[in-house]
Design goal:
By secondary structure, the protein is an alpha+beta fold. The chain has eleven helices and ten strands. It has three domains: 119 residues, no CATH class; 65 residues, SH3 type barrels; 84 residues, 2-Layer Sandwich (Alpha-Beta Plaits), CATH 3.30.70.100.
Length: 356
């Protein structure tokens, strides 16, 4: 019968079986501790504590810990278990490099996620929650690329690559690329102008250069607008910034005016009543503030009145419904009073020829 001590001392690939057993037991015990103690006890306890607070920053920290600590602990357990096995010097170097690469990837991903959530948290008070993600997509992309570049340089330096010469070469190429693509650089600068100055946000209804629509996204180089007729308008950020832009979402109330003309045959008593009639009609409507109504001038074929009122919100559909209701009420009131609307007419007088 084979002795157990002799069995575990048998050598395979320059390692006795006892080394493989030690690595396996270390891996199993370490993963159990990681899953039970760290993930199910410590992380769950910390998550409950965070949810019980009103602050938002601790949610960001908790999310980063869950995405970083547990994977790093599991990676560390695998690394420690492999230390029980003897490798050749060259293979050991590559094992260390491989685990260093995995660790950097985990830390970089969690760092990028932490920065993204932290930016959203800081700017949540200045932007609406729905639009903040769209507004800062380009900024998050730039930061994410920057973080991954730094991580790549750290990995290359650990692998023995001359990072200083590489940075110098990339800097020269970047300068040459920036000079060759000045338009793109200008668009990126305009993107930061839009983000920091906030002339408009995603979801705003804007008008520019005889175009109107809802802003759908703000990218690093271009922005996309959904026009009223349905098509998507794509234009560079520099074009958007250099135009005169009307932002209707920030309009607290809408000032509107309209004119009507009545017949010259209308009596002076009814002419005097017209402003009062129109004022009473407008004041009966909800979400409306009356401005003025005046007998403006004598037209070519009508007595012209001008009316100004304010709709107390920026909803265009509601404004049109109110205007329609006012028009119908004026038509009914004028019909009841016997006031006629004027329209272009011509009276031709003919002089009868004298008969001799």
């Amino acid at each position: 019968m084979v002795n157990f001590s002799e069995l575990i001392q048998k050598t395979y690939f320059n390692n006795p079986i006892s080394n493989y057993l030690g690595a396996f037991l270390t891996l199993v015990i370490g993963l159990l501790i990681t899953r039970i103690v760290i993930r199910r006890i410590l992380i769950c306890w910390f998550t409950k504590k965070v949810k019980s607070t009103a602050a938002q920053w601790d949610d960001v920290v908790c999310d980063m810990i869950k995405k970083t600590v547990v994977p790093l602990c599991e990676l560390f357990v695998v690394y420690v278990s492999l230390q029980c096995i003897e490798f050749t010097p060259t293979f050991s170097i590559w094992v260390n490099r491989l685990f260093f690469l995995f660790a950097v990837v985990i830390i970089t991903k969690s760092t990028s996620s932490f920065i993204k959530n932290w930016i959203y948290h800081l700017l949540k008070k200045q932007y609406s929650t729905s639009s903040s993600h769209e507004n800062f997509k380009g900024l998050i992309q730039i930061i994410t690329v920057f973080v991954w570049i730094i991580s790549s340089l750290i990995v290359l330096d650990y692998f023995g690559v001359d990072v200083t010469a590489l940075i110098a070469s990339v800097g020269i190429l970047g300068l040459a690329g920036a000079m060759a693509a000045r338009g793109i650089v200008e668009d990126i600068i305009c993107y930061f102008t839009i983000i920091l100055d906030k002339p408009f946000e995603v979801g705003d209804f804007i008008s520019f250069s005889n175009q109107s629509g809802t802003l759908k996204s703000i990218g690093l180089a271009s922005s996309r607008i959904q026009s009223l007729s349905g098509e998507e308008i794509v234009l560079s950020n520099s074009q958007l910034i250099n135009n005169l832009i009307q932002n209707f979402k920030k309009m607290e109330e809408r000032r509107t005016s309209f004119s009507i003309g009545i017949l010259y045959e209308t009596s002076s008593a009814l002419v005097k009543e017209v402003p009062t009639i129109i004022q009473s009609i407008i004041e009966e409507k909800t979400n409306v503030r009356f401005g003025r109504c005046h007998f403006k001038n004598f037209g070519d074929f009508s007595l012209n009145f001008e009316t100004v009122y304010y709709v107390l919100n920026n909803d265009y559909d509601e404004y049109m419904s109110i205007q329609q209701s006012i028009n119908i009420s004026i038509f009914e009131s004028f019909e009841e009073k016997g006031i006629g609307f004027a329209y272009p007419t011509q009276l031709v007088y003919t002089k009868p020829q004298s008969t001799e």
